[in-house]
């Protein structure tokens, strides 16, 4: 038998464990595009597959009156490599999740309480797909597209969200533009906003420059 074939067969026939079923994240390592390395079998417990945080309301006492409770790989190491995660969204009256993207995941939202106005913008023709969602309604937000959620009711709104990645990523457009040290003159050029408005938003969101 040729040595290469023998080596391949040897690798295929090595004793296997739960690694064929799942790869619990070793959170002491580094997150890569393909996820975390697997935790050693002896260190895996049932708690790696359990998260109890989605039953508790998040703190919406903030600028956007919104809270996201994630159940990503950092909270549920068992989702590592499985292409799934979840989160809870709480929106106080007037609450908003500003335009944002999840670079690594499609999002599926289910409203469990209240009314949420939600939508996304296509990347081809900038078409807007917008809908007012009531309890029991759901909406899909394709991967990496700009989207938003707003509480358009008079009471607290709640939703459970699932993602097609253990680490969906997040970039909020407003924070990307106004919460860092990108010079105001450049922000004005790329947004067509005047100097006063840019500086107002930088002050509001903690940016400089």
From TrEMBL:
Keywords: Apoplast, Disulfide bond, Manganese, Metal-binding, Secreted, Signal. Residues 1-19 form the signal peptide. One of its GO terms (molecular function) is manganese ion binding. It is found in: Secreted, Extracellular space, Apoplast. GO terms for cellular component: apoplast. The keyword DNA repair does not apply. SMART domains: Cupin_1. Belongs to the germin family. This is Germin-like protein.
């Amino acid at each position: 038998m040729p040595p290469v074939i023998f080596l391949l067969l040897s690798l295929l026939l090595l004793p296997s464990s739960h690694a064929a079923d799942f790869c619990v994240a070793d959170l002491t390592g580094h997150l890569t595009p393909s996820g975390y390395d697997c935790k050693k079998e002896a260190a895996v417990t049932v708690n790696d597959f359990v998260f109890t945080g989605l039953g508790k309301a998040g703190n919406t006492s903030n600028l956007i009156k919104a809270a996201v409770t994630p159940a990503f790989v950092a909270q549920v190491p068992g989702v590592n490599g499985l292409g799934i995660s979840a989160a809870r969204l709480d929106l106080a009256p007037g609450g908003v999740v500003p335009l944002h993207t999840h670079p690594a995941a499609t999002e599926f939202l289910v409203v469990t309480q209240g009314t949420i106005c939600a939508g996304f913008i296509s990347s081809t023709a900038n078409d807007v797909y917008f809908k007012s969602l009531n309890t029991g309604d759901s909406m899909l937000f394709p991967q990496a597209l700009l989207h938003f959620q707003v509480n358009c009711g008079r009471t607290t709104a709640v939703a459970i969200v699932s993602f097609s990645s253990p680490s969906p990523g997040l970039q909020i457009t407003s924070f990307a533009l106004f919460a860092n040290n990108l010079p105001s003159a450049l922000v004005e050029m790329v947004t067509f906003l005047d100097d006063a408005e840019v500086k107002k938003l930088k002050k509001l969101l903690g940016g400089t420059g």
